[in-house]
Write a structure and sequence with these properties.
- By secondary structure, the protein is mainly alpha-helical.
- The protein has one domain.
- It is built from twelve helices and no strands.
- The protein is globular, with a radius of gyration of 19 Å.
Protein backbone atom coordinates (compact mmCIF):
# COMPACT_ATOMS: atom_id res chain seq x y z
CA UNK A 1 0.00 0.00 0.00
CA UNK A 2 2.88 2.36 0.77
CA UNK A 3 4.32 1.78 -2.70
CA UNK A 4 0.96 2.56 -4.30
CA UNK A 5 0.64 5.78 -2.30
CA UNK A 6 4.21 6.74 -3.14
CA UNK A 7 3.86 6.38 -6.89
CA UNK A 8 0.55 8.26 -6.77
CA UNK A 9 2.21 11.06 -4.84
CA UNK A 10 5.10 11.06 -7.29
CA UNK A 11 2.77 11.50 -10.26
CA UNK A 12 0.67 14.13 -8.48
CA UNK A 13 3.75 16.04 -7.31
CA UNK A 14 5.04 16.10 -10.88
CA UNK A 15 1.78 17.38 -12.34
CA UNK A 16 1.45 20.01 -9.60
CA UNK A 17 4.85 21.52 -10.45
CA UNK A 18 4.38 23.12 -13.90
CA UNK A 19 6.96 25.74 -13.00
CA UNK A 20 9.52 22.91 -13.11
CA UNK A 21 8.82 20.97 -16.29
CA UNK A 22 7.21 23.92 -18.07
CA UNK A 23 10.20 26.22 -17.64
CA UNK A 24 12.63 23.43 -18.52
CA UNK A 25 10.68 22.71 -21.70
CA UNK A 26 10.72 26.38 -22.67
CA UNK A 27 14.45 26.49 -21.92
CA UNK A 28 14.96 23.57 -24.33
CA UNK A 29 13.18 25.48 -27.10
CA UNK A 30 15.17 28.65 -26.44
CA UNK A 31 18.46 26.75 -26.49
CA UNK A 32 17.61 24.98 -29.74
CA UNK A 33 16.88 28.25 -31.57
CA UNK A 34 19.32 30.55 -29.82
CA UNK A 35 20.61 33.38 -32.09
CA UNK A 36 17.94 32.49 -34.67
CA UNK A 37 15.82 35.29 -36.15
CA UNK A 38 12.63 33.27 -36.65
CA UNK A 39 13.29 30.94 -33.74
CA UNK A 40 10.69 28.16 -33.38
CA UNK A 41 8.79 29.50 -36.37
CA UNK A 42 11.39 27.78 -38.55
CA UNK A 43 9.46 24.63 -37.60
CA UNK A 44 6.25 26.28 -38.75
CA UNK A 45 7.79 27.26 -42.07
CA UNK A 46 9.27 23.80 -42.67
CA UNK A 47 5.99 22.11 -41.78
CA UNK A 48 4.04 24.46 -44.05
CA UNK A 49 6.30 23.77 -47.02
CA UNK A 50 6.11 20.00 -46.49
CA UNK A 51 2.32 19.97 -46.11
CA UNK A 52 1.77 22.22 -49.13
CA UNK A 53 4.05 20.13 -51.34
CA UNK A 54 3.02 16.65 -50.27
CA UNK A 55 -0.62 17.66 -49.92
CA UNK A 56 -0.82 18.65 -53.58
CA UNK A 57 1.09 15.56 -54.74
CA UNK A 58 -0.93 13.07 -52.71
CA UNK A 59 -4.24 14.70 -53.63
CA UNK A 60 -3.38 14.10 -57.28
CA UNK A 61 -2.29 10.52 -56.59
CA UNK A 62 -5.55 9.76 -54.74
CA UNK A 63 -7.53 11.81 -57.27
CA UNK A 64 -9.14 13.94 -54.57
CA UNK A 65 -10.08 17.59 -54.48
CA UNK A 66 -7.43 19.71 -52.76
CA UNK A 67 -9.98 21.38 -50.45
CA UNK A 68 -11.03 17.92 -49.23
CA UNK A 69 -7.64 16.27 -48.93
CA UNK A 70 -5.31 19.03 -47.72
CA UNK A 71 -7.08 19.77 -44.38
CA UNK A 72 -7.32 16.04 -43.67
CA UNK A 73 -3.63 15.52 -44.36
CA UNK A 74 -2.42 18.72 -42.66
CA UNK A 75 -4.15 17.96 -39.35
CA UNK A 76 -3.08 14.32 -39.43
CA UNK A 77 0.53 15.18 -40.19
CA UNK A 78 0.86 17.80 -37.44
CA UNK A 79 -0.89 15.71 -34.77
CA UNK A 80 1.03 12.57 -35.71
CA UNK A 81 4.29 14.51 -35.61
CA UNK A 82 3.52 15.41 -31.99
CA UNK A 83 2.66 11.82 -31.05
CA UNK A 84 5.57 10.12 -32.82
CA UNK A 85 8.21 12.66 -31.80
CA UNK A 86 7.14 12.39 -28.17
CA UNK A 87 7.27 8.59 -28.15
CA UNK A 88 10.63 8.48 -29.97
CA UNK A 89 12.22 11.09 -27.71
CA UNK A 90 10.95 9.33 -24.61
CA UNK A 91 13.39 6.50 -25.38
CA UNK A 92 16.17 8.83 -24.20
CA UNK A 93 14.07 10.79 -21.69
CA UNK A 94 16.36 9.83 -18.82
CA UNK A 95 19.71 9.35 -20.55
CA UNK A 96 19.69 12.81 -22.15
CA UNK A 97 19.24 14.36 -18.70
CA UNK A 98 21.69 12.01 -16.99
CA UNK A 99 23.59 14.77 -15.19
CA UNK A 100 20.42 16.33 -13.80
CA UNK A 101 19.08 12.96 -12.67
CA UNK A 102 22.24 12.08 -10.76
CA UNK A 103 22.54 15.47 -9.07
CA UNK A 104 18.92 16.00 -8.02
CA UNK A 105 16.01 14.00 -6.63
CA UNK A 106 13.40 15.05 -9.16
CA UNK A 107 10.50 12.63 -9.75
CA UNK A 108 11.03 10.42 -12.80
CA UNK A 109 7.76 11.50 -14.48
CA UNK A 110 9.01 15.12 -14.52
CA UNK A 111 11.63 14.25 -17.15
CA UNK A 112 9.00 12.72 -19.43
CA UNK A 113 6.56 15.56 -18.77
CA UNK A 114 9.31 17.99 -19.76
CA UNK A 115 9.39 16.32 -23.19
CA UNK A 116 5.59 16.36 -23.46
CA UNK A 117 5.50 20.08 -22.70
CA UNK A 118 8.32 20.78 -25.15
CA UNK A 119 6.60 18.87 -27.94
CA UNK A 120 3.29 20.59 -27.17
CA UNK A 121 5.03 23.94 -27.65
CA UNK A 122 6.33 22.70 -31.00
CA UNK A 123 2.83 21.43 -31.83
CA UNK A 124 1.39 24.88 -31.06
CA UNK A 125 3.80 26.48 -33.53
CA UNK A 126 2.98 23.90 -36.21
CA UNK A 127 -0.74 24.32 -35.57
CA UNK A 128 -0.47 27.73 -37.24
CA UNK A 129 -0.22 25.82 -40.53
CA UNK A 130 -3.33 23.81 -39.68
CA UNK A 131 -5.25 26.97 -38.81
CA UNK A 132 -4.32 28.57 -42.13
CA UNK A 133 -5.33 25.47 -44.08
CA UNK A 134 -8.70 25.19 -42.31
CA UNK A 135 -9.40 28.90 -42.81
CA UNK A 136 -8.41 29.31 -46.45
CA UNK A 137 -8.59 25.82 -47.98
CA UNK A 138 -10.75 23.65 -45.77
CA UNK A 139 -14.34 23.76 -44.54
CA UNK A 140 -13.75 26.68 -42.18
CA UNK A 141 -14.30 26.74 -38.46
CA UNK A 142 -17.31 25.26 -36.67
CA UNK A 143 -18.38 24.81 -33.07
CA UNK A 144 -17.24 21.20 -33.32
CA UNK A 145 -13.65 22.49 -33.35
CA UNK A 146 -13.94 23.17 -29.61
CA UNK A 147 -14.11 19.41 -29.03
CA UNK A 148 -10.54 19.17 -30.30
CA UNK A 149 -9.34 20.74 -27.04
CA UNK A 150 -10.51 17.97 -24.67
CA UNK A 151 -9.53 15.46 -27.34
CA UNK A 152 -5.97 16.79 -27.44
CA UNK A 153 -5.76 16.97 -23.64
CA UNK A 154 -6.90 13.38 -23.20
CA UNK A 155 -4.64 12.16 -26.00
CA UNK A 156 -1.71 14.04 -24.44
CA UNK A 157 -2.29 12.28 -21.12
CA UNK A 158 -2.33 8.94 -22.95
CA UNK A 159 0.88 9.82 -24.79
CA UNK A 160 2.47 10.83 -21.48
CA UNK A 161 1.72 7.42 -19.96
CA UNK A 162 2.85 5.64 -23.13
CA UNK A 163 6.09 7.61 -22.99
CA UNK A 164 6.67 6.51 -19.39
CA UNK A 165 6.08 2.90 -20.39
CA UNK A 166 8.65 3.30 -23.18
CA UNK A 167 11.23 5.39 -21.31
CA UNK A 168 11.95 2.95 -18.49
CA UNK A 169 12.71 -0.21 -20.55
CA UNK A 170 14.57 1.83 -23.20
CA UNK A 171 16.90 3.12 -20.49
CA UNK A 172 17.72 -0.46 -19.50
CA UNK A 173 17.86 -1.92 -23.02
CA UNK A 174 19.32 0.60 -25.46
CA UNK A 175 18.56 -1.60 -28.48
CA UNK A 176 14.88 -0.82 -27.99
CA UNK A 177 15.39 2.70 -29.38
CA UNK A 178 15.58 1.65 -33.08
CA UNK A 179 12.73 -0.80 -32.45
CA UNK A 180 10.46 2.00 -31.22
CA UNK A 181 11.53 4.27 -34.08
CA UNK A 182 10.71 1.60 -36.67
CA UNK A 183 7.37 0.88 -35.03
CA UNK A 184 6.38 4.56 -35.18
CA UNK A 185 7.43 4.66 -38.84
CA UNK A 186 5.27 1.62 -39.60
CA UNK A 187 2.45 3.20 -37.61
CA UNK A 188 2.61 6.27 -39.83
CA UNK A 189 1.72 4.21 -42.90
CA UNK A 190 -0.86 2.04 -41.14
CA UNK A 191 -2.68 5.05 -39.67
CA UNK A 192 -5.02 7.19 -41.84
CA UNK A 193 -2.74 10.20 -42.29
CA UNK A 194 -1.83 10.07 -45.97
CA UNK A 195 -4.89 8.04 -46.90
CA UNK A 196 -8.53 8.29 -45.84
CA UNK A 197 -10.34 5.37 -44.17
CA UNK A 198 -12.99 5.26 -46.91
CA UNK A 199 -10.33 4.23 -49.45
CA UNK A 200 -9.97 0.85 -47.70
CA UNK A 201 -13.56 -0.18 -48.22
CA UNK A 202 -15.53 -2.39 -45.85
CA UNK A 203 -13.21 -5.37 -46.35
CA UNK A 204 -10.25 -3.72 -44.62
CA UNK A 205 -12.12 -1.34 -42.31
CA UNK A 206 -10.81 -3.37 -39.38
CA UNK A 207 -7.33 -1.90 -40.01
CA UNK A 208 -8.65 1.44 -38.77
CA UNK A 209 -11.10 0.11 -36.18
CA UNK A 210 -8.36 -1.84 -34.36
CA UNK A 211 -5.64 0.80 -34.72
CA UNK A 212 -5.18 2.70 -31.41
CA UNK A 213 -3.26 5.48 -33.17
CA UNK A 214 -6.20 6.07 -35.51
CA UNK A 215 -8.47 6.75 -32.54
CA UNK A 216 -5.91 9.02 -30.86
CA UNK A 217 -5.86 10.94 -34.13
CA UNK A 218 -9.63 10.97 -34.64
CA UNK A 219 -10.51 12.73 -31.37
CA UNK A 220 -8.44 15.71 -32.51
CA UNK A 221 -8.87 15.71 -36.28
CA UNK A 222 -12.60 15.10 -36.66
CA UNK A 223 -13.66 18.20 -34.65
CA UNK A 224 -11.27 20.38 -36.65
CA UNK A 225 -12.85 19.06 -39.84
CA UNK A 226 -16.29 20.05 -38.56
CA UNK A 227 -17.29 16.51 -37.61
CA UNK A 228 -18.25 14.81 -34.38
CA UNK A 229 -15.64 12.24 -33.27
CA UNK A 230 -17.09 8.76 -33.02
CA UNK A 231 -18.00 7.46 -29.58
CA UNK A 232 -15.81 4.46 -30.35
CA UNK A 233 -12.74 6.68 -30.65
CA UNK A 234 -13.45 8.34 -27.29
CA UNK A 235 -13.86 4.94 -25.63
CA UNK A 236 -10.61 3.74 -27.18
CA UNK A 237 -8.66 6.81 -26.03
CA UNK A 238 -10.07 6.61 -22.49
CA UNK A 239 -9.21 2.90 -22.40
CA UNK A 240 -5.68 3.54 -23.67
CA UNK A 241 -5.20 6.21 -21.01
CA UNK A 242 -6.39 3.96 -18.17
CA UNK A 243 -4.40 0.91 -19.26
CA UNK A 244 -1.14 2.73 -19.96
CA UNK A 245 -1.56 4.76 -16.77
CA UNK A 246 -1.83 1.56 -14.75
CA UNK A 247 1.17 -0.02 -16.47
CA UNK A 248 3.25 3.15 -16.02
CA UNK A 249 2.40 3.26 -12.30
CA UNK A 250 3.44 -0.36 -11.84
CA UNK A 251 6.70 0.19 -13.71
CA UNK A 252 7.47 3.27 -11.63
CA UNK A 253 6.89 1.45 -8.36
CA UNK A 254 9.12 -1.44 -9.38
CA UNK A 255 11.96 0.16 -11.32
CA UNK A 256 12.17 3.83 -10.32
CA UNK A 257 15.14 3.21 -7.97
CA UNK A 258 17.06 1.32 -10.66
CA UNK A 259 16.86 3.85 -13.48
CA UNK A 260 19.76 5.97 -12.21
CA UNK A 261 22.00 2.87 -12.18
CA UNK A 262 21.12 2.08 -15.79
CA UNK A 263 22.40 5.42 -17.08
Amino acid sequence: MSQINYRRNELFDTVKAPQLWGLLAWYDIKQRYRRSVLGPFWMTLSTGIMIATLGVVWSMIFKMQIHEYLPFYAIGQVVWSFYSTQVNESCTAFSQFEGLMKQTRLPLPSFVLRLVCRNLIIFAHNFVVVALVITFVGPGWSWYALLAVPGLLLASVAIFFISLCVAIPCTRFRDLLPVVQNLTMIGFYLTPILWQPKTLGSKFAWMVALNPAAHLLDVVRSPLLGQMPSLTSWIWVIGITLVTGGVASLMLSRYRHRVAYWL
